[in-house]
Amino acid sequence: VVAALEGLDAWLVVAALEGLDAWLVVAPSSGINVWCAASGGHFGTSQVVTALKTSGIAERVRHRRAILPQLAATGVRARDVMRRCGWRTRFGPVRAEDLPAYLDADGKKTDAMRCVSFDARERLEMAVMSGVPAALLAAGLAALVHPPFALPLAGLALIAAIACYGVYDRLPQPRRALFTAGLAASALAITAFSGGGTAALLTAASAAVLLGAGLTFDYSGSTPIEGGSHFEERAWHVVLDKERCESLYTCWEVCPEACFEKPTGEDRRIELAREDRCVRCGACIVQCALDALAFQNDAGDRVPPATIRRYKLNLLGQRKIERTSPGAPA
After folding, report:
1. What is the pLDDT of residue 220?
2. pTM of the prediction?
3. Which domain holds residue 295?
4. Does residue 220 form part of some domain?
5. How confident is the model over 252-276, as pLDDT tens digits?
6. What are the helix (H) ranges across the chain?
7. Are residues 110 and 148 in the same domain?
């Protein structure tokens, strides 16, 4: 495995599989993390099928079972993988480090294994990724208008990014307005303290509003940020057709926010118990073999499962056609 992955940024998976009797098959995701790639159409059924067919793995193992990252469920449909290449796929845990425990438990996931959480390290990484470009941009704008407050404003941008990813999702509503207002007030105070005039104050306020909007942009569930009204699909919510549902529990297995709950009484049908946690990723709709789930708005309009499977989200919350490998069936 290590030799095959030489030069690739895949050390987390290699470390997790060390000492296990397992083969690692790598499928391309355009250099994007698996959740965003699957949601955006860069990592889907075609990529998985192509990897399984061309990697030579079929000659190295006697079975036809593959474990996929759970967050790939928005783009990879297990039934289609089976139909197109004969491999039975299951969605493993969210995190690579949970693979040994998942395999030891014979493929059973705990709640912690299947739910997305953002720990302090991940939040800091996202803050740095957003904060450094924001700080450079803020410093550049400030240098053009009022150079003395360029460095303080850059520092404010970094602090804002850390605060955004650290505490934003814990603020009361309307958190986006509160966060942006606090950022603007801080920028104005820094500018005034450094002796900036009217033009500098206006620039600082504008930059703070833009920074607040950028930092609190809702990337469809793949960050701790939520609640972006600019997403068209925020008007839609997942609905469960209990007449079609046969409680296969696939939705429970792939939901990254634990929105579904297995019943404990005589009625074995799944419950959409925590709809308020839903991030509209569509994984449950993509994987449901009975089409018992769909998106619906308050007016009763529905987006059928076939549409969710075919069209993927871009960063503006709009769906685009999933890419397919050359020569692969649509």
Report:
1. 45
2. 0.69
3. 235-316
4. no
5. 999 998 899 887 767 677 888 888 8
6. 11-17, 34-40, 45-54, 78-85, 99-104, 111-114, 120-145, 150-167, 175-193, 198-215, 250-254, 283-287, 305-310
7. no
